[in-house]
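Weekly modeling sync, notes
Attendees: S.R. (lead), two postdocs, one rotation student

Agenda item 3: backlog of single-chain predictions. S.R. asked that every request posted to the team notebook include the full sequence so nobody has to chase files. The rotation student volunteered to paste the first one in as an example of the format we agreed on. Action items at the bottom.

Example entry:
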Amino acid sequence: MIEQNGKWETRVAENADVGERLDKWLSGWTELSRSRIRALVETGNVRADGDIISKVTSKVRPETEYAVRVPPPVDDTPKPENIPLDILFEDDYVIVLNKPSGMTVHPAPGSRSATLVNALLFHCADSLSGIGGVMRPGIVHRLDKDTSGVMVVAKTDKAHQGLSKQFAKHSIDRIYMCLVRGAPKPRSGSVVSRLARSPNDRKKQAVVKGTLNNIESTDTGRHAITHYRYIKGYGKAQHASVGTPKISQMECQLETGRTHQIRVHLSHIGCPLLGDPLYGKQRAYATSNHPAEEAVRVAVADFKRQALHARHLGFIHPITKEHHSFDAPVPNDMQHLLDVLENLPVN
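Predicted structure, as returned to the notebook:
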């Protein structure tokens, strides 16, 4: 098998090899799996007569020298980085902070640096809980990269265990501010379902068919409960009854905390988050000739993330047993949207 040393290993195709699918042939003499060959092709580590190959499905050509390189392993251990943190509270056991949008919580493929973990390693030095492992030290829960708001991180293993128990019991108070298209019916309620990976898109989660308000119908996926309420409406939806806003401000309270839970649930009830690239309908904001409508159209088009902000977090301190409650101010980009929306008629 080819070693992970970064050296090119070559072989010239013989007549008997011609026409065979490339990944299958390469896998045969390199002793690498076809999925590994595909990954090497995608990263420019497979060549034919010196030219980078882009398709694993191409056929082996006669009298062609093929070269394969397996790069040496990279140390993925997160490194401390001097990134400013907006700290709301800190003691010897926990740190509560306001995470900005655009920051990934922990390192992952495609996002190895400039994460919250990198910032925490610099700020806290060696005083982070190790329960989350090397890649997620101190991380008890997380927010999506483009979701802003308040988070709590554990600095000791005992604090990590205490917070984890509260999350498992769903006793943590988590309230999110949302800006959505349309308005929910009814104006307040709960979305109860099971969530699982979408069969059509591996990046997405989806409500398991038949589980809306019927989570006992199957064991597929994980049960998810979101409580919501309508706060305020802006504008009037076209071809809708009086009192139906074009955009609404909502508040969601999580009982469970599944991946993309609020984003999936709001989309499922017909109120996708503004700017959501996965679950929102990325249609343009339709306007009249009114200046306020045009200003909203521009603001919505310029908003490049889901309009979701974790504004409130409440929990029992895992060591002192005191109740703590924290609120993160509305970030500037969402505040700008709100300011523009205020110029529209309110329903």
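Discussion: group reviewed the output briefly. The mean pLDDT is 92.
Action items: rotation student to repeat for the remaining queue; S.R. to check formatting next week.
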